């Protein structure tokens, strides 16, 4: 499987490793690395019985999708991966209710906290208003904005 992710090539342009990065466009290719990394972590720390991938979907009265949140439970923490709402669904409390639902689910699953990353042009203030603290930053990424890493203990 690894050949789908990295392909063996002749060294070129100063590359002396004999490997070249290729685009990994399918989930199976990315899963090869993810599965290996998961197995490595399990061997070091023991199995992660609480591991889960979850989602919360937002729909309007006509059941049309308005956005949602995808998240992952890993080693006692909930990671908020992707969170998007249609502009019409913003500023009416939908995002706050989705975040509260995610935090409640984290508590049910025994998580000690929630963490995420967001860009300066997205929603760092939204998370701060909900009790999240900045635990790290990557300035000027993407330029001229920054990337913020936030966490909240439950």
Structure commentary:
It is globular, with a radius of gyration of 19 Å. The N and C termini lie far apart (39 Å). It has a 6-stranded mixed β-sheet with strand order 3-4-5-6-8-7. It is built from 4 helices and 8 strands; from the N terminus they run αββαβββαβαββ. The chain has 154 residues and is of the alpha+beta class.
Secondary structure topology:
Elements: H1 2-5, E1 6-8, E2 19-21, H2 27-45, E3 52-59, E4 65-74, E5 77-85, H3 94-108, E6 113-119, H4 124-129, E7 133-138, E8 147-153
Parallel strand pairs: 5-6
Antiparallel strand pairs: 1-2, 3-4, 4-5, 6-8, 7-8
Entry keywords:
154 residues; alpha+beta; six-stranded mixed β-sheet; two-stranded antiparallel ribbon; 4 helices; 8 strands; 34% strand
Largest sheet: 6 strands, mixed
The strand count comes to 8
Briefly note the structural class of the backbone: alpha+beta
Poorly predicted runs of 5 or more residues? 1-6
The helix tally amounts to 4
What percentage of the residues does DSSP assign to strands (E)? 25-35%
C-alpha end-to-end distance: 39 Å
Radius of gyration from CA coordinates: 19 Å
Task: Order the strands across the largest sheet as they lie in space.
Answer: 3-4-5-6-8-7
Global geometry: globular
Quick check: average pLDDT?
89
Q: What series of H and E elements makes up the topology? A: HEEHEEEHEHEE
Which assembly state applies to the chains in this document? single chain
Share in helix: 25-40%
């Amino acid at each position: 499987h690894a050949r789908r992710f990295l392909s063996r090539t002749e060294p070129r342009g100063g590359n002396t490793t004999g490997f070249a990065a290729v685009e990994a466009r399918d989930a199976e290719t990315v899963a090869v690395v993810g599965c290996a990394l998961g197995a490595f972590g399990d061997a070091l720390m023991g199995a992660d019985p609480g591991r889960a991938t979850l989602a919360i979907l937002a729909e309007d009265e006509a059941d049309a999708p308005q956005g949602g949140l995808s998240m992952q439970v890993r080693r006692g923490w909930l990671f908020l991966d992707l969170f998007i709402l249609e502009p019409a669904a913003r500023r009416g409390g939908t995002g706050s209710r989705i975040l509260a639902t995610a935090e409640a689910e984290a508590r049910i699953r025994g998580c000690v906290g929630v963490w995420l990353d967001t860009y300066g042009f997205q929603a760092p203030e939204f998370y701060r208003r909900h009790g999240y603290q900045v635990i790290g930053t990557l300035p000027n990424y993407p330029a001229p904005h920054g990337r913020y890493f936030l966490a909240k203990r439950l």
